Amino acid sequence: QSALTQPASVSGSPGQSITISCTGTSSDVGGYNYVSWYQQHPGKAPKLMIYEVSNRPSGVSNRFSGSKSGNTASLTISGLQAEDEADYYCSSYTSSSTLEGMDFGTGTKVTVL
Amino acid sequence: QVQLVESGGGLVKPGGSLRLSCAASGFTFSDYYMSWIRQAPGKGLEWVSYISSSGSTIYYADSVKGRFTISRDNAKNSLYLQMNSLRAEDTAVYYCARATLQTVDYWGQGTLVTVSS
């Protein structure tokens, strides 16, 4: 397994929109519509925000949206709020001739200015 | 509501063993796939292992294959991770998760495993 590539940090002012990218390969992000996004506040367990590229679980704000193009998935947070300041991780199902599993992204720290 | 409570973490010497447990409640445990996912201090998430609802299908990350064993007891609503030949790089918070290989929808609060002499 190899980590998916995310920017180390992204920042924005309250009310703005930001986008976090998650780049993999054709064996993971590009090959399947099984990209998820998680939010993690310091000292807390991660929380599922998006699954299957663009689906929101019940209770997650519609300010969070996901998309994918080729080997890169994206999470967009619109109307940025102070409570959105956290670490964000993507994940993708991965499969090859020798392994099957789940890859996580390197993580992105979102700062609300 | 879904609850996943891990236990069994602690300090262990390199080469030692530890068994993690996860008590599940709030859902029909035997209907769901489960996983262990870890996070080294200050680092990102790493998927460790997955087990199907019946226990018949199991996968491991290359980093733990041959050293870790995942198992479950559906009668006790419990998930386990037997960790042998532990290394310093196994130091992490270990999360029990309700998860397929496609997504993780619920996470426990985690249990810290520290491998140090």
Structure report:
- The complex is a heterodimer of chains A (113) and B (117).
- With 113 residues, chain A is mainly β.
- Chain A has strands at residues 9-12, 18-23, 35-40, 47-50, 64-69, 72-77, 86-95, 100-104, 108-112.
- Chain A contains no helices and 9 strands.
- Chain A is elongated and about 45 Å long.
- In chain A, strands 1, 3, 4, 7, 8 and 9 form a 6-stranded mixed β-sheet that branches. Chain A has a 3-stranded antiparallel β-sheet with strand order 2-6-5, with no helix packed on it.
- The mean pLDDT of chain A is 95.
- Chain B has 117 residues and is mainly beta.
- Chain B is 0% helix and 52% strand.
- Chain B contains no helices and 11 strands.
- In chain B, the strands form 2 sheets. In chain B, strands 2, 4, 5, 6, 9, 10 and 11 form a 7-stranded mixed β-sheet that branches.
- In chain B, a hairpin with a 5-residue loop joins strand 4 (34-39) and strand 5.
- Chain B is globular.
- The chains are: A mainly beta (113), B mainly beta (117).
- The topology string of helices and strands of chain B comes to EEEEEEEEEEE
Total DSSP E strands of chain A: 9
Kindly report how far apart the N and C termini of chain A lie: 35 Å
**Unreliable residue stretches of chain A:** none
Q: Radius of gyration of chain A, rounded?
A: 14 Å
